[in-house]
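Database export, one record per block. Field names are fixed; values are copied verbatim from the stored entry.
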Amino acid sequence: MSFPAGNLGIKIRMKFSDPNSASGLEAPLQAIKSQFSGALSAGNDPMGFGAVLSGLSIVTSGDVLSISTVLPAEMLQNMASGAQSGFAATGQGKADFGDQVRLVDGSTIGGEILDPIDEGIIVKLATGGGLSRRIHWSEMDIPTLETFNKFPRTSQFVRDYIPKERAQAKEIYLQSLPEVARPNAGRDF
């Protein structure tokens, strides 16, 4: 398979110890390809995955299953520009989140926020351009979490880490009651 300039070709070759495993996997993969191709051709393809699926080749030969496709240059450029701008697709990038993440231990990590998921974020470091380790939401201080809570893309992850305001307890007043007169302890009582 030759790839046009600027496109990225992907080839996967899997060798199975049992030839039936390779051929048994081909039919379900073809069915998945058909199902997604039909859904994407119905106009629900904002990212251009239809082109990827239309060029997807799934072939078995004995104990080998081969899958190959081409990612068009335009799709690669869209993915690269989205990765460079953090939350470009949602309009949430460095300018919205600020350029520092403050941690509960008092340290700060400067850079651009990338890849927010339930397990935390990765920061593209301002110094050196490398990537930080994944920073869990529980490691961030409350003001930083409150900033992330303002954005739909991250609020779902930080909600549980922000302390909730507790209702004030009502004051209870104890009053002394007037003494009740005791009845005379007579015979009938």
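Remark 1: Residues 83-95 have pLDDT under 50 and may be disordered.
Remark 2: The first strand starts at residue 8 and ends at 15.
End of record.
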